[in-house]
Design a protein that fits this description.
The complex is a heterodimer of chains A (274) and B (419).
Chain A (H helix, E strand, L loop, with lengths): L2 H30 L4 H22 L7 H35 L1 H7 L11 H11 L10 H31 L11 H6 L8 H21 L8 H44 L5
Helix pairs in contact in A: 1-2, 2-3, 2-9, 3-4, 5-6, 8-9
Chain B lengths: L1 H36 L5 E7 L7 E7 L11 E9 L7 E7 L4 E5 L16 E9 L5 E3 L3 E4 L11 H22 L10 H16 L3 E6 L6 H20 L3 E5 L2 H17 L11 E3 L4 H15 L3 E7 L4 H10 L3 E6 L5 H7 L2 E4 L1 H11 L2 H29 L3 H5 L6 H6 L5
Parallel strand pairs in B: 9-10, 9-12, 10-11, 12-13, 13-14
Antiparallel strand pairs in B: 1-2, 2-5, 3-4, 3-6, 6-7, 6-8
The chains are: A mainly alpha (274), B alpha/beta (419).
Chain lengths: 274, 419
Amino acid sequence: MDKSRRISIMILAGTIILFIISWIIKSNALQTSGMEGSLAIRDAFLITLAAFLTLAIFSFLYKDNPYYKFAEHLFVGVSAAYWMCVGFWSTFVGNFIPKVSTSLSEFFKVPPKGFEIHYFIPLILGIMLLMRLSSKAGWLSRWSLAFIVGTTAGLNLIRYLRTDFITQVSNTFVPLLVDWKGIGPFFSDFSLSASGQAVMTLANWVIFVGVFSGLIYFFFSKEHKGFFGGASRVGIWVLMVTFGASFGYTVMGRVSLLVGRLTFLFSDWLGLVN
Amino acid sequence: MKLKLLILSCLLFIFTAPYASGQDEPAAMDSLDMETRLPAPITQLTAFDTDNDHGHSIELSWSPSVDDGGGKNTVFGYVIYRAASPDGPFEERGIQPLGETGYSDVGSKEKDSPSYMPDHTDYYYKVRTLTADSLIFSDSEIFGPIQCYGQWFNTSRIPELVFVIGFLMVAVVFINKARRGANLFVRRLAGIEAVDEAIGRATEMGKPILYVMGLGTASEIATIASFTILGRVAKKVAEYQTGLIVPCYDPIVMTIAQETVRSSYMDAGRPDAYNDDMVYFVTQSQFAYVAAVNGTMLRELPATNIYMGKFFAESLILAETGALAGSIQIAGTDEVAQIPFFVVACDYTLIGEELYAASAYLGREPILLGSLKAQDYAKAGVIVCALIGFISINLGWDSIAQLFQVPNAFFTNLFGGHN
C-alpha cells in the first residue's frame, strides 16, 4: 500500500469518525431541546449528512476530490430518480390515466375525469419516441421529434412576436421632452426625483438611444463602419452597461444563497448562531 | 245581555285599537322609508359573447345607477346574476364595486368543473344595485337570451399574421437568392469564427470538446439554434477525429442531439466513429447537472468548452470551472441575465441574437442564410416602425402609436369586434 493511499484511508476514517461524533452530539442536542428519542436520532442523522455533503461540495473550491465525487454522484443519482418518479406520477398517472381509463384510475387511486380520445396522440408520439431503442423502427422517433420541434417553434414564434416585438416596439414610443413647458420652467422646477421631469426625460433619451443603437449592433447584413460603426459601438456600450448592472444585481442574489448555506451550517448543524 | 255584549265590545275596542293603529303605522313608515331609500336600478343592460376567445365567456355592460356617485349617492356596488330561464332561478356570478359598468362572466370549459359554462346555451342576466343595507336593493330588467361560443380566428392577432406573412415572403426571396448563388453578405462575428479555431486547438491537443446545451427544452428557440451549431461542430469534430462530449439536461434534447450528431458524423463520412455515449443524459435537477458537468470538466480536461443554449444560475459556475480547467470557452445565450457571466468568464461570447445568427454564419446554407437576411430586414422594419411611432408620439399623433398596442384596437374594429 503506497503512502498516498494510506493517507486517503486515514482521512476517510477520520471523516467517518467525525460524522459519527457529530451525529451523536446533534442527537443529544435535539433530545435536550425536547425532541423524542428516535425522531432526534433520525433528524440528527439527516442534518449531519446535509452538512457533510455541503462541505463535500465546498471542497471543490480546493480541487476535484473523492468527497466531491461522492456528493456529485449521490446528487445526480437521487435527482435523476426523483424526477423520473415525478414525471411518472404527475404526467402519466396524474394527467393521462384519469382521461383514458376508469379501471386504471381506480388502480392508481386517482379520480377519473372522463374519456378523452385525443390523449392517445401524445401516447402514440411517446411510444414512437421510444422506438429509437429499436434498430429497425428507430426512424419512427424522428416523427415525434419533428412534431415537438416544429410545433413548439411555431408556437414560440407567435409568443415572441407578441411580447418581444409588438410590445417592445410600442414601448419605444416615448416623448423626448416630458411635460415640456419651456426652458425656464424646466430649470426653475428642476428636481432629481425618479418621477421628476428631468429624470423622466433622461430615461426616455436612454431608451431612445439604447434601443436604436442596440438594434444597429445586431444588424448582420452591413459592415460596422462609418455612422453604422459608431452607432453599433454605442449599442455595445449600452449592452455592456446593462450587463454590468445585471451582474451586480445577480451577484447580490448569489451572496444571499451563500448566506443561506452558511446559516444552515452554523445554525442548524453547529448551533453556534441563533 | 245586550248591554253586557255592548260593554264588552267597547272594552275590546278600547284595548285593541291602540295596538291595531300601532301596527299599521310602522308598516306604512317602513314601506315609505324603503321606497325613498331604494337606489335607482342600472339601465341599458346588454350582454354579448366575448370576442376572440375559446367560448365559455360572456361580457356584460350597463349604464350605472343614477344614485352611483350622484343622486342619493347610496349605491354600494352591483351583483351580477345569471339564469338559464328568464323565470330563474338566478345564480350569483360576481360582484362589482360602485362605478363599474361592465363584467366578464368567465366560466370553465371543463365539464367536470363546478363553474362549467357550456357554449351555445341560452343565458339570462340581471344586475342588482346594492346599498349599504342588504335589504334595500333594486334589480335591473332581465337581459337575454344570450349565448357564448368560441371564435375560429383571433382578430387581435392580425398584426402578427401580417408580420409573419411579410417575414416569410422576405425569407423566401432571400433563400431563392442564396440558392441561385448570390453572395449574401454577413458581417464577421468573432465568437463564431473562434469555433473552428477551438476545434482545431482541441485536435492539436488530442483532447475532447465539451458541448453544453444548457437547461432549455427542445421548445426554446436558443436550444433549436444550439442544435444547428452542434451539427456544425460535430461535423468538424468527425472530420478532425476529435472527441466530443455532450451532457444533456433534458431527455428530449438528448434524443435530438444524438440524432444531430449522428447525422453530422454521417455527413462527414465517419458514421463508424459515432457513438451514442457521446451524447448522454445527466439529470433534470439544475445543480446536480452542474455538479456533474463540473466534474467532467476537471476529469476529462476538454480543450474547448462550448456553451450554447438557454442558461440560468449555473452559467457562472460552469464558465468559472471551465476557466479553472484551462479550456478555451465560447458561449452563446439569449438569456439576458446570464450573458454578463459568460462575458466575464469566457473567451468569446455570442450575445443574444448572435446565437441565432451563428447557425447561419457557420453553415452558409441557403435556408439559414436567407432566414438571417430576412431577420435583418425585419429588424430594419422594427427600426422604421419604432421611428414612426417615436416621431408621432413626439408630434402628438397618438393614433399612429395606437396601431402598435396589444391587443390591437384598429384590427379588432376592422374585423367587426365589439371592443
